[in-house]
Amino acid sequence: MRTMKKKQFAVIGLGRFGSSVCMELYELGHEVLAIDVLEEKVNEMSKYSTHAVIADAVDEKALVSFGIRNFDHIIVAIGDDIQSSILCTLLLKEMGIKNIWVKAQNTYHHKVLDKIGADRIIHPEKDMGIRIAQHLASEKIIDYIELSEEYSIVELIATKKVANKTLIELDVRAKFGCTILAIKRGENVNISPFPDDNIAENDVLIVIGHKIDLKRFEDEGL
């Protein structure tokens, strides 16, 4: 059985979003450094992180003392203080950090983060809103992840129409331009399924493709 490689993450800002990220990464078995300027939040995360420290996000000496340059990913999840978020991101970029993901508060914040080189900009409320809307709009969609303006990954429920058919029989890529990445059946997940693997009714198909193609597959293929 292949074990997941342990990574090092630093989460700066322990509000609702930052705390959730911190807890999940720690539960997944990774090393997590939790940082916030408020002692109360740091204390709360001390049992859900490898290390939890009180520090100002724009204090370069403090960040360096924690070995911040050694971390694989840094998530800047600072809440309402947009200035601190921007300055912290800029500081991390100047340190040569390779993977910096930042929570953006609004469009203007996003534009500045993009200009200074944030590797990924996250809008938790917007992203969740899109996923919920997609789920509400279709009984076949279980989950939805937007990759870009054009491409997405969706989880679709297999209907009777495709039950007991193999992937090669469905020929989804040729007919709809989409790719089935995995098939979930109960607790089991079939990653990179073979062409002759069968689909059962109520299987969950994890599909990637252009949004237009995914919609066609949902409407015509299932």
CATH topology of the largest domain: Rossmann fold
Order of helices and strands: EHEHEHEHEHEHEEEHHEEEEH
Name given to the CATH homologous superfamily of the largest domain: NAD(P)-binding Rossmann-like Domain
Count of all domains: 2
Percent of residues in helices comes to 25-40%
The CATH architecture assignment of the largest domain turns out to be: 3-Layer(aba) Sandwich
Q: In terms of per-residue confidence, which ranges show pLDDT below 50 for 5 or more consecutive residues?
A: none
Walk me through the structure.
- It is a single chain.
- The chain is an alpha/beta fold.
- It folds into 2 domains: 8-122, 3-Layer(aba) Sandwich (Rossmann fold), CATH 3.40.50; 127-221, 2-Layer Sandwich (Alpha-Beta Plaits).
- Helices cover 36% and strands 27% of the residues.
- The chain contains 9 helices and 13 strands.
- Strands 3-2-1-4-5-6 form a 6-stranded parallel β-sheet, sandwiched between helices.
- The longest helix is centred in the middle third of the chain and has 14 residues, at 124-137.
Briefly say what this structure is.
The chain is of the alpha/beta class and 222 residues long.
What secondary-structure arrangement, pairings included, does this model have?
Elements lengths: L7 E5 L3 H12 L3 E6 L2 H7 L5 E4 L5 H6 L7 E4 L5 H13 L5 E4 L3 H9 L4 E3 L1 H14 L3 E6 L4 E7 L7 E2 H4 L1 H5 L2 E7 L2 E4 L6 E2 L4 E7 H11 L1
Parallel strand pairs: 1-2, 1-4, 2-3, 4-5, 5-6
Antiparallel strand pairs: 7-8, 8-13, 9-12, 10-11, 10-13
